[in-house]
Write a structure and sequence with these properties.
Oligomer: single chain
Number of helices: 3
Number of strands: 7
Largest sheet: 5 strands, mixed
Strand order of the largest sheet: 3-6-7-4-5
Number of domains: 1
Length: about 170
């Protein structure tokens, strides 16, 4: 009888050991899965931010170095927005003025920034005065603002104004 009770006790302890091992294993799987999902989410966010940085780096370069398409674009026929005249980094006020007339959603579409918000400023660097300001200026609320600055000259018919073009983009 004692031997039978001893076997029952060992069987019960074995069952408890298996149960605890199973719970620890399941707990490990839950923790591993949670950490894995968080890592994948952070990687996705990092890649998305990197892609957006590359996109606005390219587009800010395009704005200051090209005429756009078509070259003599206006707000009814523009396919690609560019501010340069015959010289790279010399922006034409006529093109900037045309851009200022564009509908914000239309400009986002032409700049391939759908799903994002943006602003564009052109600032006189000598007088630290904003010459042009366009877009959504509520970027102060954004934690993920990406901002690119390009130095250029603004051709203001009578003189060239040393300036900087600032393009800021963030997820809405």
């Amino acid at each position: 009888m004692k031997e039978n009770n001893s076997l029952k006790r060992k069987a019960q302890l074995f069952s408890v050991d298996v149960g605890l091992t199973f719970l620890v294993f399941v707990g490990f799987i839950v923790i591993f899965t949670t950490l894995w999902n968080q890592s994948v989410k952070q990687l996705d966010e990092s890649l998305e931010k990197q892609n957006l940085q590359e996109k606005i780096f390219y587009y800010s370069d395009y704005l200051v170095r090209t005429k756009g398409y078509p070259e003599n674009w206006n707000n009814s026929n523009v396919l690609l927005i560019g501010f340069a005249g015959n010289n790279e980094n010399v922006l034409l006020t006529s093109k900037i003025d045309n851009f200022m007339l564009l509908n914000y959603s239309f400009a986002k579409n032409r700049m391939n920034l759908e799903g994002n918000e943006f602003y564009l400023k052109i600032i006189d660097v000598i007088h630290n005065q904003t010459l042009y300001s366009y877009g959504n200026m509520s970027y102060q609320d954004s934690k993920e603002l990406i901002q690119i600055t390009r130095f250029c000259l603004v051709n203001n018919t009578s003189k060239l104004i040393p300036s900087k073009l600032v393009l800021g983009v963030w997820k809405n």
